[in-house]
Amino acid sequence: MDLRTEQIQANNIIPIPIRGTPETERSNPTIAPIPTPKSDQVIANAAKLMKISNYQSSYDFETYRRLEQRFGLDQPRGGIVFGNSDPFKIINTHKSCQQCLYAFEMDTYGRGCVHDCAYCYSKAELTVHGYWNKPFPMPRDITSVWKEFYTVFETDKKSKWREILEKRIPLRIGSGSDGFMYMDRKYKVTHELLKILKHYNYPYIVVTRSDLVAHDDYMNVLDPDLASIQLSIPSLNDELNKKIEPGAPSAKRRLKAIQKLSRNGFWTTVRINPLFPIHPDGYFTDPNLPSEKKNLKFDYFSWDLINAIADHGGQSLLVGMVRLSKFAMNNIERAIGMDLSPFFNDECRKSARDYHYSEIEIRAYYERIHAQSKQQGIQFTTCYIGNGENMFWSDQDLWDNKKDCCNAQNRVKGFNTDARKIDYDTRSKLSSIKGDAVNPAAINLELGSVDPKEIERQYKSKNVEFLQ
Known about the structure:
Number of strands: 14
Strand content: 5-15%
Number of domains: 4
Largest sheet: 8 strands, mixed
Radius of gyration: 24 Å
Number of helices: 20
């Protein structure tokens, strides 16, 4: 046995021929070793867990090796496995989302998303660093998730996530990427995650723009006692959807997915988030709005969307007003060929890079959508993220579920707590996002037990004693 053959066997390297001309291939059948260190580690981790864990996976872990071999010696930046050995993150230490109830989250894919939404914050961040879809989203090492659940629920060993997992803080699936992209039919990472969560009886909230979540092979591993399913549908206008969310399924397919899931006993929520206003800021609230602005219209969101959701059995609606970075604004304007800047008031911008609507106009949209939802028998809540913490409190009078802005508690059997109940010191210890609490006095206030309007008044009066 020569040295090269020994190296191949020792390192589990799959040899492939070096391509050249037909003449050189016949005369010089040299074989180049292609190392697969990333997939070797994943496969080794899986083999170890199979020996010690009660959960017995049927997942094909050779999937990772085939992906690594696909790139040969020219591996993508960051490698073929997304993330590190720590699969989870806590995000409600960031000043924009400290009141978020479902801030314990993970992505099954990363460094991109095939939906490629023009407004996506993750796209903005990763494009700057040269990672977005280069060449496509990469799957997470699913053994890292399995290992954490095994450690917490089958051993007494240390885990930084033990306190969170033992409390069964619901896990949010889908933040920086969509776990239900159609590529998961090939890589099956999200499918395997659902099986792990079901085995350990762990609650989760799905956030997706894909109808794949309603395919039979996924519904078979989803659990209606554990899953709250949120499907984003910002518009019925598929001509614009194709420009703004070019890789996502049509609105028609997403509505059919909601219908199928609801009929099969799953608690479903449609997210109109981001909500793109039809008219310029002030249309509903400023009697002095210039006539040239009153005539402007962006036909993306429509009131017919709420009716369509009702017609397809949608049970709950979650609405969050759009807020755009300069990067996202430019992306959307290029995609649709329309200048959107006249829709925004300069005095409402928090910076030169931040486009958002006035609070009074946001409220006008919410009230109208809430009234229409009520008429259609659809429950209603709002998402404040990106628009200031005072809006978490100011719109709670519109919520049908006073305990939960995502409307999952008291709707899904497994939802008995949330990430907002994690004390701030623990959040800070677990999060890579460091910062002081925006409002320490309100950080853990029990929802439904306080008057949210009083807290909103304290914000507006800048009551320093209360806010600190």
